[in-house]
Queue: 3 jobs
Job 1
Amino acid sequence: MKVKPDELRSHRWFGTNDLRAFGHRSRIKQMGYSEEDFAGKPVVGIINTNNDISPCHFHFKQRSEEIKRGVLQAGGFPLEIPAMGLAENFQKPTTMLYRNLLAMETEELLRSYPIDGAVLMGGCDKTLPGLIMGGISAGLPLIAFPAGPMMRGCWKGKTLGSGSDTWKYWDELRAGNISECDWRDIESGIARTAGHCMTMGTASTVTAMTDAMGLTLPGASSIPAVMAEHARLASATGRMAVEVIQEDRRPTQIITEDAVHNAVVTTLALGGSTNAVVHLVAMARRAGFNLSPEAFNDLAQTVPLLANVRPAGKYLMEDFYDAGGSRALLKELSPLLKLHTQTINGHTLEDNISDAEVIDSDVITSLVNPVSKLPSLRVLKGNLCPDGALIKPTSMDPAKLKHRGPALVFDSYKELKERIDEADLAINESTVLVMRGAGPVGGPGMPEWGMMPIPKKLLDKGVRDLVRISDARMSGTSYGTCILHVTPESAVGGPLAAVQTGDIVELDVKNGSLNVLVDPEEWNNRLAALKPMTYPDDRGYIKLYRAHVEQADTGCDFDFLAGIDITEPEIL
């Protein structure tokens, strides 16, 4: 049964006959609106994360107008409200530090204004997770609108993928294999249109898992940002936002345990970013149930890699879309999915993918002929990471799936940068780089420092991968034998803080173990001597963040925000 006009939340602002409503109506009229524009109509809040320093979102100025057009076509009243944009490349030390702030802002925008439901506009890595986390907690009907990937890059006829080729050619520059002029040409050719990274980085992964959960229109995640189809998607999303309000479809009706299962399966089949684990765990906990990294680990044993997209494959998101996009991938994954889940358009996942087909089977492969049979993700446990760490087997040197070597320890990212290219650095191909002080508390914000650079003295010898361990994250566009999200982190007294240079570290990806081979008595003595770091100079948001952020295995949310506790304030 459709929501009646006097049952709309916005009716309490605009529909009653009292002094408060007089003030609300007079002020909305002050902006040039008439009662015919808003009276009795669903108010759609368009939460737009565009700003002048977010290249992933700079087409959102136009897309918001197209969303408004769709809202008006469906009989709604659109109100665009800017929210904090998180520009991955520019915001330091990391956008992850501010994901929770965006979540809080989104929740309070939706809670405090006369909004009946929302369109959440995001794409760059942390924006969509932050928007959705806040949207879940606010509890209002919503639909997500993904920014879409940029088009492919190019340099001297070579296809460039954002992020992945940045790291690749940076190593070649440092090794002397390309010139400074080449490097500048790559800089100008690697990111040429609006949209987020066109590799299977965090943005492509998170938008795809949001699509698989049913929070977007079907197939929305893979449409490139600058295509006409993306503009049409915007208007269709606006129309659907009105229907979502009228049918009272709440996010917790969509984000069920089965829907999250579908998101996990999709992430693994895409060879997606390790960051997706942190974000999906946080979203699930906002929706009221626990999800652990082990759920990814368990499913990774049976979900093969089907998306032949960089960094685990060779193509880019533009190719993925032309090959059939996310709907085609989900169709191939059907035997592994919960097809009965309800999606935001009122249909089941099965309904939404019934007519999908793969156009190019080299880009989107099948369960019987996957890109790789290695698991896309592995959770490691051991005396270095009792609460877990993550690694991407499909994006590393297979020769290092089992490895033993001496640790070379850096106490901070700053120290790593200062020392990594020293000519007398005591390092060889078997060395295990260890960096600490880069977790949620230590970073702060768990920056993407986990793909530590290869020392120049090894680059010159042709070495392009080393075992690297940290409590940091890494970009989803990164690759290599990088062990990430070591939990608990060193700054809170985790065992990574007890490792010393020269200790032998043993990695066994197949068995899921990561250990330092130190005499147990000595190791226990080291652990007993550890103390959490203190930060007396913190102020403002960072002080709040360090006091309340949780560890990576529980999603790095704030301890006072997880779980459902939707108490809408009374409007007086």
Job 2
Amino acid sequence: MSAGSLRAALAAAVVTAAFATSVAGATAAGPAAPQYDGICRTASAKAVAGQTVTLALDCRTASRGVLVGRVVGTSHREATAVLTRPRLGVLGKLNRRSGRIAYTANPGAAGKETIRFRVRASDGRRYRGAVVVRIGAAPARPTPPAENPPVPPGEEPPAGDGLPPKLPDAVPGSVASTTRAWVPTAYDSCSKELHDRFSVVGPDGRRYPTWHPPTIVDPASGERCSFGHEHGEDPRGSDLYEWVVGHFAAAGYEQYAGLPFGLAAEALNSWAVATPGTATRSEDHVGYKMDVANDVDLIGPSGAANGVTCDFLTMVHQGSHSPDALSNNAHELLYASRCDDGTEVISSTLSRFGDPGAFQRSCEPGVEIATTDNGYPDGGGSRLIPDRTCVERDVLVGPGKTTSVWALYEKWSSENALETAAGETLAAFPTAFGVFNPSRYGAGGATTARTLPLCWETAPDGDRADGVDCTAATQGGALAEPFAWEDPKSPFDGTRRDFYIWGTVVSNAGGEEKVWTDPYGGNASPLPFPGAICQLVSSLDNAAQSDARMQVFGRNRSFDAEGVHAPN
């Protein structure tokens, strides 16, 4: 698929809310199976043994190859039956208004199962869909290492304290680990020294921050402390983790290898020295977010599986707390995919989510809001971000109405390609990342306003915010005044996110598997050059993935944890 075709496909992909409204229990016997007019894309969810997760009977279908959908509650479609009875858990009662249903995994359950359902459109057409539930074991309660006594303040924790090893002092720091390093706030109880333990040596021999849990046990005190931010899914749960870590290992420092945050931005500094006029880039620590999707059956144009199964691991910098994304379109993206058709890609670039100096109004995607152009290259895709117009239209609502969970939803979409200097595409992979509860919205041009105070605002016409987040923030109306937007009590902390994956198109038959590109993925060469990043592309052509349809993951999850707060 050409870059132009990818751009068209990405722009045409329309994603709306999950929808479904009524469920009746399935029976083993009954009338003949109905004929279906279409197939909904397969959704996925994660559950933990003995715990409950909410499933959305999420149906999207295709019309002339373009994904379409409608919102639940507007009578466009209704779920009329759940067609499979769970083997590894129990279903609750479907909420007819929201189209969601509780699934409780049996204690001790593990593995995955598929919940199939039937959907009827308002025109009488019938569709069928499925949600694949992957069940993992319940996590063990963490305890301080018994063999390590408390360490006096100011002394280095001993080896084997449960934290990553301290890097050698000789390793130079990257921008991400020095000038853009995390600094504790008044809300955080973990120290900078503990945070620095979660560092790796990147392929360029520099020190970089990496993924860490939002809380840890301080070996010196034996007490749990919080970093106040999270980086999404634990990448160690990815089937690709060891493979990707090996790719980013530096010779002689293999034991300190990992997933470096800020690698592409660091390379851009070197590229800018060799390419005068290039704008440099650096991003704050808390915005790096990781996503994992294992054993994904790719979907073809008809909505059925196309016979290819892939694993995906991504890391994107998505800051939903600052004005940065209102103007800047270049954000770091790590993308890794490995499939059973031989497709393999590991890429680290500055991905371009639309054009610089503007964002698109989320409630009116055709409206572009001009901001500040900081000189980054143009790109495909977009950054759909709510502004004050969206707030007045969708957040502040009249009496008897409820603020939709989608009212503040941001969706960042990008096209990504690794290309030669002649413009030949070696690999192409569109992506998108969404966030439901950002802590800021656009307030005009490149300025922002805070989301939390909207919960106490009354518009001139009497409209007010009335949704689950504001109910939580105001304690059901008991709090008369807003509190600080950085307070962990605020539900607007960017912890509810989803991500979108298409196929990975490779056109590299007989070519080098390891190539070097500039930080934007261009000028691919078999030899390194100043500012280049080593990328991996399998030596094949994979036409079977050229028409893979979009799939969305992580919609029913939250990364909120003890102490997490904006900025996050």
Job 3
Amino acid sequence: MPTTKGLNFYLEDRNLQFLCESVMGPEVFERARPHLTTLGEIAGGELDELAALADRNPPVLRAWDERGRRVDEVVRHPAYRRMEEIAFGQFGLAAMAHRPGVLGWPERVPQVVKYALSYLFAQSEFGLLCPVNMTDSCARMLGVFGSEELQARYLPHLTATDPDALWQGTQWMTERTGGSDVGASATVARRGPDGRWRLWGDKWFTSVANAELALTLARPEGAPDGTRGLAMFLVPKRLPDGSKNAWTINRLKDKLGSRSMATGEVTYAGAVAYVVGELGSGFKQMMEMVNGSRLSNAMRAAGLMRRALLESLVHARQRIAFGHPLIELPLLRSNLLSMLLDAEAAVSVILNGAALLDRRDAGAADARALARVWTPLAKYWITLRARDVTAEAMNVRGGNGYVEEWVNPRLLRDAYLGAIWEGSANVVALDVQRAIVKDRGLEAVGGFITERLARVVEPAAKPWVDLVKAGLDVVALQAADWATPLPAAERELQARPVADTLYHLLASALLLAEGQALREQGKGFRKLLAAGLYLRRWLEPRGSASPPFTARQIEWLEPMAEWRAIDASALADVEA
């Protein structure tokens, strides 16, 4: 039975290599390439084996020690601990964006490098990237909003690469009232005679239950209702004197996916907490953390899509049925082509989004508004699509794809989490709508799309450029209606269709510009063809009974997957 075991996931992915070089730039790429190659090898070997073992042996809660003391210790399997060493220690994924020296980098590692490495990691292990991202995000929030005292005390631990010094961080918002209605939070903060804040309340979904530090929302006594009354607090598991803080882990969740990572239910019973930022700005600060995490969430989903595609291609090329390799079957080739297009579009959106974060952090004037709409847009579509792509990969492998000895069940289970984490699909689509209405999000992303389309001068691609421009005009007209007294129900019902279309316009513009760049390098029309087929798949109207691709188009799957040159006649065929 064909297997991907032992493959280098980076070297197998010519598209990723091209994207890294083009998005990072030559100097950064040359410095990053050895680390990408190393992690690609680990992801296809040791990491994949560890991930399967950790998935079969989830963490357990040790509430009490042998002397009857409450310890609330989350015991992780040795395989998971070894993965922590690889992620936090060997590659410094949580630290690299905060301090120089990680991976030998003379300054802080760019976000785009961190995301590319994490994308490879996610192809084998999904769950651990939650603690990696949460620790990274906690360090960012403390660095931006925390007092000098909190920064001095906790940042060295959050950004450590030595396992003995590392403290993992997390953020806990969700309560029994529900995750989306944050304003209904019932956790109370009271300030005692000693001047210290203490928290009382329950957090219902607490990812990274083993964390040493948690950023959490609570309502100070006397504060107004709703999100305006919430403050952000840092709650350590242990106090400066080493004693255990007053929080208890009631149980760990038995989850469908991300089984390797501990999610629990926590009660604060007078837990000491430290205010982070302005007392009345907690929700705004927390949403900045959430929005930043959404791109990480989308990256993990994109990694699942790529792994699903790789598994399917390897299987279909080598598995013989009815005297022929499966990949020669037209319907299967059509499925694989659709998966390939979605995976390549997703990773382009992710790496360009990560480069956007670098520009934002460098103070680029337009980057903040663009990131405000880009991150929820990526999270919305990519996490939804990952469910379908991983399910299709299971179908490609057949019965073995349903057996836990293979990676497909784990990919599918993990994919279902992405569209819930950091906001369900409806919640995030509505956030895209808010970014358009209140934060000039459409103006920002429309300007980016227009700039990328201006790079595309290949005559054969002009109809596709025009199609994207026309789609952008349609979205603009739709968004203009939102500024009128449109009934709230009608406006809300438009959120998902507009988010769908806007994502495809963004992805298509990126693919087209990449295709133009490759064409100018003398590397054929392969990427322009991918852009044209993506547009045909998602934006070009066709009859409901029409297949997404023609018989000739599905014949191009292998050269597209292998990055062989394709001539201009392929583009003309798609247009015809």
